[in-house]
Design brief:
Number of domains: 1
Strand content: under 5%
Shape: flat
Distance between the termini: 57 Å
Number of helices: 4
Structural class: mainly alpha
Number of strands: 0
Radius of gyration: 19 Å
Helix content: over 70%
Length: about 100
């Protein structure tokens, strides 16, 4: 886990300094992988619990937030690789075409 964290931070600084897109993508990929490993560990702890407690509920909520954060990293990495792959350009929606006609 430490190697992933150090690698992600190093690649993030190197990508920002040298303005190399591939280093940014590699940094986000390493961060995503680290989050997946943490999510798996948290999921095992939550599922292993025999009784419901406050710590268990807080752990499940943290796991939920971590899943959302991991998806953010994944979508941003996809955006870095191909900026037009996720977001639609203006004027491509059916509602926009209807407004233009009428």
């Amino acid at each position: 886990m430490t190697i992933l964290a150090v690698g992600a931070v190093t690649l993030r600084f190197a990508g920002s300094y040298w303005q190399i897109l591939q280093l940014d993508v590699m940094s986000h990929s390493m961060s995503f992988l680290a989050m997946v490993l943490v999510m798996i560990a948290m999921l095992f702890e939550v599922l292993r619990a025999r009784t419901a407690s406050t710590d268990l509920v807080i752990g499940a909520v943290c796991l939920y937030f971590l899943i959302g954060l991991a998806w953010t990293f994944l979508y941003y990495s996809i955006y870095l690789l191909s900026p037009n792959s996720i977001f639609a350009a203006s004027g491509t929606c059916g509602a926009d075409r209807r407004r233009q006609r009428g």
